[in-house]
Amino acid sequence: MAQRTIEDTEQGIPLRGNSFDGEEEGDSLVGRARASPQRSSLLQPLSIADINNNAPVSVLAYCMASISMTVVNKYVVSGASWNLTFFYLAAQAIICIAVITMCKQAGMIKSLTPVTLDKSKKWFPISFLLVGMIYTSTKALQYLSVPVYTIFKNLTIIAIAYGEVFLWGGEVTRMATVAFSLMVLSSVVAAWADIRNALAGNMDDDSKDAIAILNTGYMWMALNVVCTATYTLSLRKVIKKMDFKDWDTMYYNNLLTIPILIVASLLTEDWGYNNLVKNFPEEQRDRICVGIVYSGLATIFISYCSAWCIRVTSSTTYSMVGALNKLPIAISGLIFFSAPVTIGSVSAIALGFVSGIVYAFAKKWETDAKKESLPTEDDDNNGSSNSNSVRP
Questions:
Q1: Contact, 147 vs 242, CB < 8 A?
Q2: N or C: which end of the chain has fewer CB within 10 A?
Q3: Taking a C-beta distance cutoff of 8 angstroms, is the pair 65, 329 a contact?
Q4: Half-sphere exposure of 98 (CA within 13 A, CB side)
Q5: Which domain holds residue 273?
Q6: What's the pLDDT score for residue 171?
Q7: Phi-psi region of 169 (alpha: psi -120 to 50; beta: other; left: phi over 0)
């Protein structure tokens, strides 16, 4: 639910758990003496420290967290009579705040910015935009299949990229433009496949109802693209002024959205007994409640796994994992929710997958080009080989 801001860091991963002071790499006797214990240690179970610095485990954890979050959200809001979206999001935020508070008291979170009236006033507009983003996202997921929803989420990347161009003079490279074109094409193919499947050669009442549901989903998805881009661009601007860390951002976001979501739920949603029974049918009540609790916990889990993945790999690897992860998320919709498998839907998923890969490479090459273009020496001015001046 909550967005997170993570500083891109690249950190080497030690190949051994321990180092021995005073030993030379070329000391073959020492190497032979210690070779046997090192080999035998491979057969022992991994310690917590080993797991914490294990790149494949971090990637797998991030993928599992994001896939499960999408599947659980879809399950909760897919009820035939579900109409308590504001309540659902408020429950997520409350669970998230409760867990963060317990972790802080247990010493698992070392520092957390205290809540003050001044900071809350400055951050409240961001939380308001977050409500718009998560509400439209949940409504779009309610009306669209998971594969289509995943494909259309790519359009937010385009909106954010051109928003950065407009606001901060960013640049969209040719390769990024190719990726954006593939994203748009995949969305068009996905919409065409959805509409074609809904019609199924007929124009009866059922087909018209299906088309109406799809149009509603596309409307919410379009609103979500706008809300997500607005939130992300605004967050980038405000977070620098507030000097918030990851946990601070998550804490303030969830805390300040709670009153907004509760008031919106009380004003717009039906809290009558009959409607509650429709939203929580007896045969599914326990599973829905478990899903709501898990979705709140998964909010924290995804944020932690994102930071973990970047820490033990790199920001580039994390971006690539995010692009690759769209494929299993889309496939999960085909498996768990019986989304129609057609040539159109498979083609759209493939195009969306390729567009994500192309965009990840475009960002990597853009970053590499910026690093290479930065001068690190100014020999022309002073002839010193130790000059570290860098022109702005």
A1: no
A2: C
A3: no
A4: 9
A5: 54-369
A6: 84
A7: left
Quick: pLDDT tens for 243-298.
Answer: 777 788 889 989 999 999 999 999 999 999 999 999 999 999 999 999 999 999 99
Of 192 and 388, the one with more pLDDT: 192
* Contact in structure between 146 and 330 (CB atoms under 8 Å): yes
Q: Is residue 129 part of a domain?
A: yes
Question: What is the pLDDT averaged over residues 132-140?
Answer: 96
- Answer whether residue 381 is part of any domain: no
In a domain, 311, yes or no: yes
Q: What's the distance, CA 75 to chain centroid?
A: 19
In the prediction, which pLDDT does 366 show? Answer: 81
State how far the Cα of 209 lies from the Cα of 84, in Å rounded to an integer.
Answer: 22
Plot region of 382 (φ>0 → left; ψ -120 to 50 → alpha; else → beta) = alpha
Alpha helices of the chain — where are they, by DSSP H? Answer: 28-41, 48-52, 55-77, 85-105, 117-143, 146-153, 155-168, 174-199, 205-242, 246-268, 273-279, 285-312, 315-336, 343-373, 379-382
Check residue 138 and give its pLDDT.
95
**Rounded to whole angstroms, how far apart are CA atoms 357 and 326?**
10
Q: How far apart are CA 160 and CA 133, in angstroms?
A: 13
The answer to whether residue 330 sits within a structural domain is: yes
CB-CB contact of 255 with 15 (8 Å): no
Question: What is the number of structural domains in the chain?
Answer: 1
Q: Which amino acid is at 86?
A: F
